[in-house]
Amino acid sequence: MSSVLRVLVEPGFLANGPVRTALVTGTVVAVVSGVIGVLTVVRGQSFAGHALSDISATGGSGALLVGAAPIVGFVGIGVVAAGAMELIGLRRPRARDLATGVVLGASLGLAALFLYLDSTASTSTGVSATVLFGSPFAISATTVPAVVVLGAASLSLVLAVWRPLLLATLSDDLARARGVRVRAVGAAYLLALSFGVSMSALMIGALLGTALLIGPAAAAVRLARRPLAAAGVAAAIGLGATWAGVLLAYDSFYWPPAGRGWPVSFFIVALVFIAYLVADRWSSARSRRPSRG
Amino acid sequence: MVLRPVEAALSGLSAVFSSFMTNTWIVASVVAVVVGAVGFFTVLRGSAFAAHAIPQGAFAGAAGAVLLGTSTLLGLGVFAVAGALGIGWLGRRARRDVATALGFVLMLAVGALLLSMSQGYEPEIDALLFGQVLGVGSYEVLPTAALGLASVLALILLYRPLVLASVLPDLAGSRGVSALWTEIAFLVVVGLATAMTVPVVGASLMFSLMIAPAGAARSLTDRPGRALLCSSAISLAVVWASIAGSYASNWPVGFFVGTIGVVVYGLSRAAAARRHRGLQPGAPQLAERSA
Q: Would A115 be classed as within a structural domain?
């Protein structure tokens, strides 16, 4: 048993500083994203979730430009964008899709300008890769407390409006009849989403942030019948994929072709995707069974 | 003395139309018209996420092409079409936005893997993300025109089923138009347009160009054919203004496309709102009907 473990877990894995940071931040992000992601998937707002993470990265490059702390840019512009989407976003899904697209398009234009100005102001390279993929696990230890507070705020906001939000998602009219302030609840959710997503964009990048927000939740709603259970399953899948992904990335250091290790984000996304496919197969097999008997 | 700024502006203007810019104008115009037309269907179908995902995800193809030493256009095309098919395939059983998100992150993850294996790729990535519209070579004119023609032909063939399936899905179903195949065919057209657009104007610009002009056109008119032409025209105007602005200021063209696009969209929304208010107070907006 221990020799199998030795082969799986390269010696020194847990003693490695960056690995430990990656595991801690990954854990926070996976849990927060899993819970929020279930609502995102059920409400059909994956696009808004992804757009907010791209937009907060724009805020990050803007903050870099004026010399402010990145976290201010990430969170500030995320909140502003969520507000803008809420203001122009109408109730109908297609109008919401368009509103998200327009806000995202504007932000991508701004990102182009900020990055251009950043790159002329300093000689930093690799900014575009940062925009595309984010910078997984390049977080400095000083921002960790702020990020944890942000995650906690996002999580408690979502849990506070959990029931009315689910009701409003199922049926606007029913929720209104029960006295739920549908618009306020929706805005609170969007705020929580923007906190959570800008936190993960800051910590692990836009690519992984989106993957951990949507993938585990999409798998979990196939597996669990009740929303709260789905949130738990999603958090567990996200955690498992993150930990296994970090482990594989650590192991892959001597893999071909370059001997530089494969990217962590590749492993985590691949694992999340496999989890989704398995959950999908399993649920389709389960739904077929009763009809035979 | 007073005339000096005017003279400077005029000489700048003539430089914008100088011979080395000819390719830029031709290619950018073709791209604008095609992307404006594809964007009309994107907005009509509510597929903005796919329009964002396919161009950005197609990067993986560019990275792979560099790794294998083949042409970027081929890599982009293969990945854009493969991504479109993959998103369509996932969309059979999942919600569309979830399928798009999953396909998108998978494409990007493969891109991250391929990028980590190839080296010295940074400047090219910058160009692919934000475009290098001011330096279009003559060798890019022919592939762009060919792919543009293919996209337009596909759109003409798909026009009726696409409009029907987007506006009245039930009626389309009863007439034997398959929702799944319409979606997949549409995504493949987005993939073709991606392969043609991304090398020239960049992925982020392509998305801005797809959404804002088409959104503006939709709030200006309700008739599909007219909105389609309107979208292409607005897109063309936005691109021309952006190239001029980028040329004059040296700022990236993507910034101008994004900003001008949003301004145009906002203005047309405001105009539509005024017109509807003037028409009938309290009446439902005309645009509501088709959604």
A: yes
Q: Give me the residue label for tokens 């899993």.
A: A34
* Residue numbers of the domain that contains A115: 2-137+144-282
Q: Which of B45, B97, B264 to mutate to test the interface with A (most CBs of A within 10 A)?
A: B97
The CATH number that applies at residue B166 is 1.10.3470.10
In a domain, A288, yes or no: no
CATH of the domain at A206: 1.10.3470.10
Q: Do A47 and B101 touch (CB under 8 A)?
A: yes
Indicate the pTM of the whole model: 0.83
Mark yes or no for CB contact A210/B101 under 8 Å. yes
| SS3 label, residue B190 | helix
For chain B, the domain total comes to 1
Q: What ipTM is given for this predicted complex?
A: 0.84
Contact: B255, A125; criterion CB under 8 Å = no
Q: How many domains is chain A partitioned into structurally?
A: 1
Binary contact (A112, B130; C-beta < 8 A)? yes
A96: closest chain B residue by CA: B46
Q: What is the DSSP string of B71-122?
A: -HHHHHHHHHHHHHHHHHHHTTTS-HHHHHHHHHHHHHHHHHHHHHHS-S-H
Answer yes or no: do B109 and A269 touch at CB < 8 A.
Answer: yes
Q: Which residue, among A264, A134, A119, has the nearest Cα to A202 in the 3D structure? A: A134
DSSP 8-class letter at A122: S
Whether chain B has a CB inside 8 Å of the CB on A133: the answer is yes
- Cβ distance B115 to A129 less than 8 Å, yes or no, reads yes
Chain A: give the shortest CA distance to residue B134, in Å. Answer: 15
Q: What tokens does B275 get?
A: 């017109």
Q: Which residues of A108-138 are buried (b: 16+ CB within 10 A; e: fewer)?
A: bbbbbbbbbbebeeeeeeebbbbbbbbbbbe
User: Which sign, positive or negative, has the C-alpha torsion A204, B96, A103, B60?
Assistant: positive
Note whether A70 and A60 are within 8 A (CB). Answer: yes
Among A102, A128, A258, select the one facing B117 at the smallest CB separation. A258
Task: List all residues of chain B from 23 to 82 with a beta carbon under 8 Å from chain A.
Answer: 43, 45-49, 51-52, 56, 59
A100 chain-B contacts, CB cut-off 8 A: 48-49
Match 């609170």 to its residue by tokens.
A188
Contact across the interface for B122 and A128, Cβ inside 8 Å: yes
Kindly give the confidence (pLDDT) of every residue in chain A, 293 residues in length, as a single tens digit, with 9 standing for 90 and above: 455 555 555 556 666 666 777 777 888 889 999 999 999 998 888 898 999 888 888 887 788 778 777 778 888 888 888 888 777 655 666 777 888 888 888 888 888 888 778 776 654 555 555 555 655 555 566 667 777 888 888 999 988 988 888 888 888 788 888 888 888 888 888 889 988 888 888 777 778 888 999 999 999 999 998 889 999 999 999 999 988 988 888 777 777 666 667 888 889 999 999 999 999 998 888 877 665 43
Sequence-ordered list of residues with C-beta below 8 angstroms from that of A268, at least 6 positions apart, any chain = A208, A211, A212, A241, A242, A245, A246, B109
